């Protein structure tokens, strides 16, 4: 393809407008392993590859936009979490990050459990063979139908989120002649250093039962009295995209204090605590996430120390990584459509997807990286904003990043670290067709979630 010249936006850091970016990287062709999955590289042509397959071949076979998931990387991350926590703890993959039947099978094979937060996620898990006892069911407003199904199939735990749900689950379990294992989700008053919409442990939000004012203690009181429930522990989740362990330390201390209160009042030592998930990943080279073994060591030490101080036996720990497993394993591949330089500001690079396949930039002001992947380039860097094709000014995929100034229509660019939440939150805005998810491993690629078709859109439209 001819690379015709076009007027570019600003190219030098000393004349750039304010924005969400740092100085241009030393080498725009480098694919930083911190943000790309482990089998991504460039071949001798300069084309990016994953699992040994070039993105040009992938685009030709599967089209764009599309999510490409590095199965080797996904499985390795599952094993790393399982090995870090060992047999005396439980790792539940948070299915809300991204769930499909292939994912469920991989989790089962790699020894991880699964948490779900809807009837649809539960159905997907069961249909792919995940044993019900290895499933945890979350949600702040589970329907009676969802609860009944969960109890009937024998899910390993239901996480109770309100006083009404304590009674509701107990009643349904008793009506089925069962005793359901449950945990109580508490809000511990810890506000993780994250976006307001994804910080979930301060009191002013919809999740959990507050420790403040004795509400959590009252929830335990009620749960212990109901024959349909077997209270096995306390659940806490403090937010998402967290890098600092300090919040977990405060949360664990407060949860253990509650365990001590339960022992003192009821003579019962609850055997489990779930510290949730929310561990961050690298979306840009500036992010510095912790490795699973570091997280496991820190959490185990925190809980052991607090339990020793309270005179409690150390409970079994559960964690719920979702983004931390699947997030770094996938990238979204786009084809460039139009280039629009704005003199003195930036260059708008429009792609064939957008907010329908990645709403996180618009919703959370999330930051992403982006690279030219169909070739290398020695052109100067230019400040770019990667935008989608939707009829919305907020349709931004990457707010501020550097791309080579010779990027042209027809080029392939890719956004890494899109394995979590992008497909899960994808929409049909403007009647866009949701992209496929393609798993790549050892030179083979296969669709695990197919691309939607116009027939799919019309099938639901009963006219």
3D architecture notes:
The chain is α/β, with parallel strands linked by helices. 29% of the residues lie in helices and 23% in strands. It is built from twelve helices and 21 strands. The chain has helices spanning 55-62, 71-85, 101-110, 119-127, 144-153, 163-175, 215-225, 246-266, 292-310, 323-326, 360-364, 454-460; strands spanning 41-42, 48-50, 53-54, 66-70, 89-94, 113-116, 135-137, 157-160, 180-187, 209-210, 229-236, 272-274, 316-319, 330-342, 346-351, 371-372, 381-387, 396-404, 412-416, 437-441, 444-449. Strands 4, 14, 15, 16, 17, 18, 19, 20 and 21 form a nine-stranded mixed beta sheet that branches. The chain has an eight-stranded parallel β-barrel with strand order 5-6-7-8-9-11-12-13, surrounded by seven helices. Strand 14 and strand 15 form a beta hairpin. Helix 2 runs parallel beside helix 9, helix 5 (144-153) packs across helix 6 (163-175) and helix 7 packs across helix 8 (246-266). The longest helix has 21 residues, at 246-266. The radius of gyration is 24 Å and the shape is globular.
Quick rundown:
With 463 residues, the protein is α/β, with parallel strands linked by helices.
């Amino acid at each position: 393809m001819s690379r015709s010249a076009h007027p570019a936006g600003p190219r030098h850091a000393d004349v750039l407008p304010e924005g969400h970016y740092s100085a241009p990287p030393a080498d725009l062709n480098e694919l930083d392993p911190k943000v790309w999955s482990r089998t991504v590289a460039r071949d001798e042509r300069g084309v990016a590859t994953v699992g040994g397959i070039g993105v040009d071949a992938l685009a030709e076979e599967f089209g764009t936009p599309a999510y490409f998931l590095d199965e080797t990387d996904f499985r390795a991350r599952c094993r790393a979490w399982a090995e870090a926590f060992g047999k005396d703890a439980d790792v539940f993959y948070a299915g809300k990050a991204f769930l499909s039947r292939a994912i469920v099978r991989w989790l089962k094979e790699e020894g991880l459990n699964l948490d779900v937060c809807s009837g649809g996620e539960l159905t997907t898990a069961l249909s792919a063979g995940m044993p019900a006892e290895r499933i945890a069911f979350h949600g702040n407003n589970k329907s009676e139908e969802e609860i009944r199904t969960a109890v009937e199939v024998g899910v390993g735990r239901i996480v109770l989120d309100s006083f009404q749900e304590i009674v509701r689950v107990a009643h349904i379990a008793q009506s089925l002649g069962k005793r359901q294992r449950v945990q109580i989700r508490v809000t511990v008053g810890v506000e993780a250093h994250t976006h307001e919409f994804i910080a979930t442990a301060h009191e002013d939000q919809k999740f959990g039962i507050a420790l403040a004012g004795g509400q959590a203690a009252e929830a335990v009181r009620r749960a212990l009295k109901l024959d349909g429930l077997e209270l096995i522990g306390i659940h806490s989740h403090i937010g998402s995209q967290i890098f600092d362990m300090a919040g977990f330390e405060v949360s664990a201390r407060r949860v253990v204090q509650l365990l001590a209160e339960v022992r003192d009042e009821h003579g019962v030592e609850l055997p489990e605590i779930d510290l949730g998930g929310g561990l961050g990943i690298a979306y840009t080279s500036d992010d510095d996430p912790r490795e699973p073994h570091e997280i496991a060591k820190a959490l185990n030490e925190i809980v052991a120390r607090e339990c020793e101080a309270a005179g409690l036996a150390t409970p079994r720990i559960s964690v719920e990584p979702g983004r931390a497993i699947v997030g770094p394993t996938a990238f979204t591949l786009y084809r460039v459509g139009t280039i629009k330089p704005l003199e003195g500001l930036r260059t708008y690079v429009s792609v064939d997807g957008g907010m329908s396949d990645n709403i996180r930039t618009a919703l959370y002001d999330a930051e992403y990286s982006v690279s030219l992947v169909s070739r290398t380039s020695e052109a100067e860097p230019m400040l770019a904003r990667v935008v989608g094709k939707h009829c919305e000014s907020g349709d931004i995929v990457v707010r501020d990043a550097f791309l080579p100034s010779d990027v042209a229509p027809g080029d392939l660019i890719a956004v890494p670290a899109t394995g979590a939440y992008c497909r899960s939150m994808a929409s049909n805005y403007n009647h866009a067709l949701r992209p496929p998810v393609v798993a790549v491993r050892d030179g083979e690629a296969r669709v695990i979630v197919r691309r939607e078709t116009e027939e799919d859109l019309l099938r639901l439209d009963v006219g």
